[in-house]
Amino acid sequence: xxxxxxxxxxxxxxxxxxxxxxxxxxxxxxxxxxxxxxxxxxxxxxxxxxxxxxxxxxxxxxxxxxxxxxxxxxxxxxxxxxxxxxxxxxxxxxxxxxxxxxxxxxxxxxxxxxxxxxxxxxxxxxxxxxxxxxxxxxxxxxxxxxxxxxxxxxxxxxxxxxxxxxxxxxxxxxxxxxxxxxxxxxxxxxxxxxxxxxxxxxxxxxxxxxxxxxxxxxxxxxxxxxxxxxxxxxxxxxxxxxxxxxxxxxxxxxxxxxxxxxxxxxxxxxxxxxxxxxxxx
Length: 281
What we know:
The chain is mostly beta strands. The protein is 7% helix and 69% strand. It has helices at 3-16, 206-212; strands at 23-29, 32-42, 46-55, 59-72, 76-89, 92-106, 108-123, 127-140, 144-157, 160-170, 174-175, 178-188, 195-198, 201-205, 218-232, 235-247, 252-254, 257-265, 270-271, 275-277. The chain has an 18-stranded mixed sheet that branches. Strands 13-14 form a two-stranded antiparallel sheet.
């Protein structure tokens, strides 16, 4: 069963749940109607539910905790959002803390403190904020600008990824227009098991793909620019520019490499391009 088929099966089962549990709860909060099909409790500061939740307008609330599906027609603003299932927001998400096990779709996301997604994070516009960890897929046609990004899985970004620190442990081919940071680590994912399971369905199963395919992941990017860059066991199609660069074991660079301070190249690495020391501007 493909990843898409797993999510479709999960969504079908999830839609059936509300009609088998407690009932329907509706509550008005600051002009927005919160509808819960299932079991839940809603007050002015908190939504806690199991089943399906729908919010018809922009909502600003302290805490959201949903096991199942949460859908909103406009923006969602909260101090803390925790979802085991799927989060589908037509507008923007603005939160202090974000925790998703499953899938998250939104027009845009601003995470003030930290976020953790195990599954799929698909955003129509920019992703911004503090620290973000993703085990699975991070996708946006726009840009990512964070304090820190740690990804184990696949990166699919149409614009620039810009952070202080970036860690990419890739399990499949990835791309971005450009990547900029103070420090960057790129390597092939070594994890044997990365799974998200709900209702008996393996929504994300990166581990089997990694174990079955021993080929190197490919990172396509126009430029990678950082003070310190390390890359291992990955094919990078693009240009590297940095202060200190380490091209480690089994790395393949299909592009030019420019450094201002120091470079270390492992004897098992391959570079198809110019390697040149340049002056700091």
